[in-house]
Amino acid sequence: MSRIFAWGALLTGITFFLLPLYGMTDFSLRMRRGVYSLDAYRAVLADPQFQATFGYSVIMALFTIAFGILLVVPTAYWVRLKMPELRPVVEFITLLPLVIPAIVIVFGYIRLYNTSSWLPLTGSAMGTNILLMFGYATLALPYMYRAVDTGLRTIDVGTLTEAAQSLGAGWGTILSRIILPNVLGAVLSGAFLTFAIVIGEFTMAALLNRPAFGPYMQILGANRAYEPSALAVIAFAITWACMGLIQLVTRFSKHERAKA
Amino acid sequence: MSFLTLTHLEKTFGQNRVVKDFSLDIDRGEFISLLGPSGCGKTTVLRMIAGFEQPTAGGITIDGKDVTALAANSRNIGMMFQAYALFPNMTVADNVAFGLKVKGAPKAEREARVAEMLALIGLADLGGRYPFQLSGGQQQRVALARALAPRPSVLLLDEPLSALDAKVRVSLRNQIRQIQQDLGITTIFVTHDQEEAMSISDRIVVMNGGVADQVGAPFEIYNRPTTKFVANFVGTLNTFEVEVADAASGRVMLAGQGLTLPNAPLAARTGEKLSVALRPEALRLGRLPDAEALLTAQVTDVHFMGSVIRVKADLAGAAVSLDTFNRPDTPPPVVGSAVEVSLSGRDFILLQA
Amino acid sequence: MAKPVILSQHLPLRWLGVLPFFAFAFLFLILPTLYIVIGAFRTPQGGFTFDNIIGLNTPTILNAYWLSIKISFWSALLGCVIGFAMAAAITVGNTAKGLRNPLMTFSGVASNFAGVPLAFAFIATVGPAGIITLYLRTEFGINLRAYGWNLLSAWGLIVTYLFFQIPLMILIITPALDGLKREWREAAAILGATGPQYWRMIGFPILLPSILGTMALLFANAFGAVATAIALTGPQLNIAPILLFSQIRGDVLGNPNLGYALAFGMIVITGLANAVYIWLRARSERWLK
């Protein structure tokens, strides 16, 4: 009885997951009438707009990752080492982006950092790019912080720090040469997740008027029939690749630790 | 007629035969221990009685009723687990009342029974607490009360003491035995701790490799082990090589001294070597009038353990342990000194391979 | 030992280590949110007012909130129920354990496959000209539309959201299900409990805090989602985030401060969902430290 129920739930769920994946793949191959073809993919990849927006989003993702690591790793380390009493506060803040809708945050940005404000970030393209990057960092904060903090939990931060200090290392050396390599697996997990979030993000980029991949997909979707499905397949492949890489680094860093 | 009968129980996991042809008759009200190292199959036997594992072959009868095919929840058995297994979302009182509640007993009856059980384990005031607010020993007592509340016909104890501190372990062990005797409930206790098994049981089943090596009262198991495994697993053992002087009368020679073994006539022939064993307390320090032989030993180590002093020594070419009682007026032997040791042939244990 | 002790004597130095984080969080998370909250109670001239909040009381805005709440609630509830059933199937008992790893990996991917491409996938499948829609019509003569199905509607959105809601539930609840000890089940069974009794009295109450927490998260997740909705239905479906999106782009409400109030309302609703969650969790967690 419970077995039938379990299998029923699983089969229903799996069917529900597989149908849209099948649908988008099938649809993306039907651009040429009557036969399966890769025409939709060719059309998308040849589109200069696709190349420009995709490139823009990749660069934004890389900067977001770099900024996120610089912000989160020292903070998580410092809180664990010196200020454990701050942990609840920091954790609460890092969870806020899951509760406050992104659209509300970016709405605040637009009003707070407009051309007539004390920090007129939206006044220039570069300024807006930076603001968007901060926005992405905010969206990724819950995942990045959690990944790094979990990574730090598995190493003895206090002992490592004291050992390094007794050998004369400064804070910069400790963070970059001792702590970061030890939580590299966790940091990379956070990085790939950030990449997956940023690459297709729509709301912030659209409202800040930046030429990112998300808004491009939306515009294409409103005007074309087969290309959007090709884009969906590509986006799904990117997400899959990011998650696959996370699994890979997690397994690898566990393996490394086991060897050590 | 026995109350709980296990007949030719078998359990196989994949290629692994964990329990082999295991039969046992247990009387009503008896306290039986299944003793053995980890992996000997004792827990599997217990889990088959509980109904968590289905025997590959064989049968289980409780009070004349075949329960082999019965599900765990209709066997009316009580059980204590190693890790307490109290329901964390329920108070102590709700935990104890659980068995009666799922049987549909009215509230008044449940409350009366809970009060009775909590009084029995001496935690009458803690009914409103949650498990996380209790110490390990208290949690395990609640687990006992929970197991007993629905008046089970059999009580199963799966190493319930192994997670506790040494002190609590001893006091809870005594409490379990006391309650078991008061209620007269048939109890099966699984443990790897031979001291625990001996202090608490009516009978012990020593298990090894899925079979029962020996079944008997603690006194019998300790003093007359029938296999080498039982002798080694239960208590400390000193082994010697002796030469058979006269197989018919059981006469052997150890370091030039003649001894008479209790198992005459011996299976070995005259002139052959024989392996025999002695418990530490059968080697006695000093010159004793009733002893058969007197040997000299070199003391190599002395452990003062309070009421008992355990001396390690070289005796007739073998490293032995011997126990002697502490006496306030006699200082313990000094390491490196020579001591006289009295021994008698009747204390020797002859081991089957 | 020497250096840390000296450092902690200079108290401000300790705070220097967390300063960048707090500065960032304040400037790009808390301050923008506060700005919206304060803006909701201000006149364009800067004075204090309740007019913006009162101004939310129009049929369009109230309907937008209500539809958003319904979509978020149902997608969260269905996501929880279906996700729980699937997670239970791969953890509890001996059903389908081999599917565990593939399903967990897939859930990691699917829970992050949201936004615009997700909408494309559903349009291609069950949209007006989708593969399944056409297949059912040509092969079986079933017209989904005649059965009330419309992807570009509230229920269409709910079904689409389930594609990331269910996996998210699976990801969060599977470790919680693993945390149910085998001994609890066995202890309940030996005390006479049936499987359903075990779940009702022990398994489910223990999992309830996790389930409620995930439910609140899924609710907020759906409530703030803009991209999927816009890509699926364009700007016409009247839900709160799309209304706010249009307002930010073009002041469709004709009053900038009403936009603040609209955003403030969204924060209040997700905040309330979380408050309800925290309250329920505190009740269901009396037995934990």
From TrEMBL, chain A:
<dbReference type="Pfam" id="PF00528">
    <property type="entry name" value="BPD_transp_1"/>
</dbReference>
<keyword id="KW-1003">Cell membrane</keyword>
<feature type="domain" description="ABC transmembrane type-1">
    <location>
        <begin position="54"/>
        <end position="249"/>
    </location>
</feature>
<keyword id="KW-1133">Transmembrane helix</keyword>
<dbReference type="InterPro" id="IPR000515">
    <property type="entry name" value="MetI-like"/>
</dbReference>
<dbReference type="InterPro" id="IPR035906">
    <property type="entry name" value="MetI-like_sf"/>
</dbReference>
<comment type="similarity">
    <text>Belongs to the binding-protein-dependent transport system permease family.</text>
</comment>
<keyword id="KW-0812">Transmembrane</keyword>
<feature type="transmembrane region" description="Helical">
    <location>
        <begin position="183"/>
        <end position="208"/>
    </location>
</feature>
<feature type="transmembrane region" description="Helical">
    <location>
        <begin position="89"/>
        <end position="112"/>
    </location>
</feature>
<feature type="transmembrane region" description="Helical">
    <location>
        <begin position="228"/>
        <end position="249"/>
    </location>
</feature>
<feature type="transmembrane region" description="Helical">
    <location>
        <begin position="54"/>
        <end position="77"/>
    </location>
</feature>
<protein>
    <submittedName>
        <fullName>ABC transporter permease</fullName>
    </submittedName>
</protein>
<keyword id="KW-0997">Cell inner membrane</keyword>
<keyword id="KW-0472">Membrane</keyword>
From TrEMBL, chain B:
<keyword id="KW-0813">Transport</keyword>
<dbReference type="InterPro" id="IPR050093">
    <property type="entry name" value="ABC_SmlMolc_Importer"/>
</dbReference>
<dbReference type="InterPro" id="IPR017871">
    <property type="entry name" value="ABC_transporter-like_CS"/>
</dbReference>
<dbReference type="InterPro" id="IPR003593">
    <property type="entry name" value="AAA+_ATPase"/>
</dbReference>
<protein>
    <submittedName>
        <fullName>ABC transporter ATP-binding protein</fullName>
    </submittedName>
</protein>
<dbReference type="InterPro" id="IPR008995">
    <property type="entry name" value="Mo/tungstate-bd_C_term_dom"/>
</dbReference>
<feature type="domain" description="ABC transporter">
    <location>
        <begin position="4"/>
        <end position="234"/>
    </location>
</feature>
<dbReference type="GO" id="GO:0005524">
    <property type="term" value="F:ATP binding"/>
</dbReference>
<dbReference type="Pfam" id="PF00005">
    <property type="entry name" value="ABC_tran"/>
</dbReference>
<dbReference type="InterPro" id="IPR027417">
    <property type="entry name" value="P-loop_NTPase"/>
</dbReference>
<dbReference type="Pfam" id="PF08402">
    <property type="entry name" value="TOBE_2"/>
</dbReference>
<dbReference type="InterPro" id="IPR013611">
    <property type="entry name" value="Transp-assoc_OB_typ2"/>
</dbReference>
<keyword id="KW-0067">ATP-binding</keyword>
<keyword id="KW-0547">Nucleotide-binding</keyword>
<dbReference type="InterPro" id="IPR003439">
    <property type="entry name" value="ABC_transporter-like_ATP-bd"/>
</dbReference>
Automatic annotation (TrEMBL), chain C:
<feature type="transmembrane region" description="Helical">
    <location>
        <begin position="148"/>
        <end position="177"/>
    </location>
</feature>
<keyword id="KW-1003">Cell membrane</keyword>
<feature type="transmembrane region" description="Helical">
    <location>
        <begin position="113"/>
        <end position="136"/>
    </location>
</feature>
<dbReference type="InterPro" id="IPR000515">
    <property type="entry name" value="MetI-like"/>
</dbReference>
<comment type="similarity">
    <text>Belongs to the binding-protein-dependent transport system permease family. CysTW subfamily.</text>
</comment>
<protein>
    <submittedName>
        <fullName>ABC transporter permease subunit</fullName>
    </submittedName>
</protein>
<feature type="transmembrane region" description="Helical">
    <location>
        <begin position="226"/>
        <end position="246"/>
    </location>
</feature>
<keyword id="KW-0812">Transmembrane</keyword>
<dbReference type="Pfam" id="PF00528">
    <property type="entry name" value="BPD_transp_1"/>
</dbReference>
<feature type="transmembrane region" description="Helical">
    <location>
        <begin position="71"/>
        <end position="93"/>
    </location>
</feature>
<dbReference type="InterPro" id="IPR035906">
    <property type="entry name" value="MetI-like_sf"/>
</dbReference>
<feature type="transmembrane region" description="Helical">
    <location>
        <begin position="197"/>
        <end position="219"/>
    </location>
</feature>
<keyword id="KW-1133">Transmembrane helix</keyword>
<feature type="domain" description="ABC transmembrane type-1">
    <location>
        <begin position="65"/>
        <end position="277"/>
    </location>
</feature>
<keyword id="KW-0472">Membrane</keyword>
